[in-house]
């Protein structure tokens, strides 16, 4: 445009202007004429920074859970850390995530991705099949929680028309699908299978004559007649049966049957368990 206009400038002036820009902090603009290698070194970091920013977030897809996302994206600290990072987005219930929500994965998740893929111990932990993640945190009293790191959900005896008894017969522990479920004390499995509205359930008889029930599991790892120890993994959590989302429904009963429930939280606390 300047070459065709009325105010045409001498060529020497245009050259002087370029050099002036370089002399006032515009070295990156003048460098392609002088040292191309240096210019690439200056600008190469920007695309890399952009990629890191994109990798630090994840958009929730249908059927996602925090546990699945944490495993797939190798989030250090698992679903609990992922939930901690995104509590304002997810809300008070870690199981209620919705497609389209954008979650922060954490700045360090990409650095450990390759190691996590190659590490047998990481794979074992995330699959919740064997290893330290399946061991319950015992209280030392012979009793323990049915699941670790859970949020308390619907309490025992909450009234509601959705329950045939008119109230909730157990205590819900909110955990993502696939969380290890533990026997709260030594005992013998009396029921392990489908329980109708309870989905996949296990009922265990204990030495004090009480029975513990664990419902809505996605998979069972014990059979009827089997002896179990305190903290032993008996299955993994899920959303089978009549549920609104993944959790473990836990009861303490005076018989193995429905309708004989007592306060499960008070029972665990009476045996030294911190609930």
What's the SSE blueprint?
Blueprint: H1 11-23, H2 27-34, H3 36-43, H4 45-55, E1 57-59, H5 66-72, H6 78-85, H7 87-90, E2 102-104, H8 113-118, H9 120-127, E3 151-152, E4 171-174, E5 180-182, E6 187-194, E7 200-205, E8 211-217, E9 219-220, E10 227-228, E11 233-236, E12 248-253, E13 261-262, H10 264-270
Antiparallel strand pairs: 1-2, 3-4, 4-12, 5-11, 6-7, 6-10, 7-8, 8-12, 9-11, 12-13
Helix pairs in contact: 1-2, 2-3, 5-6
Give keywords.
Membrane-bound Lytic Murein Transglycosylase D, Chain A; 275 residues; 10 helices; alpha+beta; Glucose Permease (Domain IIA); eight-stranded antiparallel beta sheet; single chain; globular; disordered N terminus
Question: How would you summarize this macromolecular structure in one to three sentences?
Answer:
The protein has 275 residues and is of the alpha+beta class. The chain is built from ten helices and 13 strands.
User: What is the highest CATH level, the class of the largest domain?
Assistant: Mainly Beta
In the CATH hierarchy, what is the architecture of the largest domain at level 2?
A: Distorted Sandwich
Low-pLDDT ranges: 1-5, 12-53, 108-133
> What profile does the largest beta sheet have?
8 strands, antiparallel
Oligomer: single chain
- Counting helices, strands and paired strands, the structural category is alpha+beta
Strand content: 15-25%
CATH level-4 homologous superfamily of the largest domain: Glucose Permease (Domain IIA)
The total number of structural domains is: 3
Gross morphology is globular
Q: Please write the string of helix (H) and strand (E) elements.
A: HHHHEHHHEHHEEEEEEEEEEEH
Percent helix among the residues?
Answer: 25-40%
> Quick check: average pLDDT?
76
Total helical segments:
10
Q: Compute the gyration radius: what is it?
A: 29 Å
Terminal-residue CA separation: 77 Å
What is the CATH topology assignment of the largest domain?
A: Glucose Permease (Domain IIA)
Record field, number of beta strands? 13
């Amino acid at each position: 445009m300047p070459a065709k206009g009325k105010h045409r400038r001498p060529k020497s002036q245009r050259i002087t202007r370029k050099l002036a820009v370089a002399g006032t902090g515009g070295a990156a603009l003048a460098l392609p004429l002088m040292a191309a290698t240096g210019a690439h070194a200056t600008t190469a970091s920007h695309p890399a920074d952009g990629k890191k920013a994109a990798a630090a977030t994840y958009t929730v897809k249908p059927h996602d859970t925090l546990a699945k996302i944490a495993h797939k994206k190798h989030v250090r600290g698992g679903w609990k850390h992922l939930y901690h990072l995104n509590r304002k987005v997810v809300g008070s219930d870690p199981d209620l995530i919705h497609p389209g929500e954008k979650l922060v994965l954490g700045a360090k998740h990409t650095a450990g991705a390759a190691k996590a893929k190659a590490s047998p111990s990481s794979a074992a932990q995330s699959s919740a099949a064997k290893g330290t993640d399946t061991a319950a945190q015992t209280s030392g009293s012979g009793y323990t929680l049915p699941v670790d790191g859970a949020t308390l959900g619907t309490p025992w005896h909450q009234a509601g028309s959705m329950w045939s008894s008119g109230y909730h017969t157990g205590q819900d522990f909110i955990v993502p699908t696939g969380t290890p479920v533990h026997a709260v004390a030594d005992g013998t499995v009396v029921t392990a299978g489908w329980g109708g509205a309870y989905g996949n359930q296990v009922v265990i008889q204990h030495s004090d004559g009480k029975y513990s029930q664990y419902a809505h599991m996605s998979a069972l790892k014990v059979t009827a007649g089997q002896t179990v120890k305190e903290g032993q993994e008996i299955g993994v959590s899920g959303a089978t049966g009549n549920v609104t989302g993944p959790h473990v429904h836990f009861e303490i009963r005076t018989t193995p049957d429905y309708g004989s429930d007592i306060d499960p939280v008070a029972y665990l606390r009476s045996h030294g368990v911190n609930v």
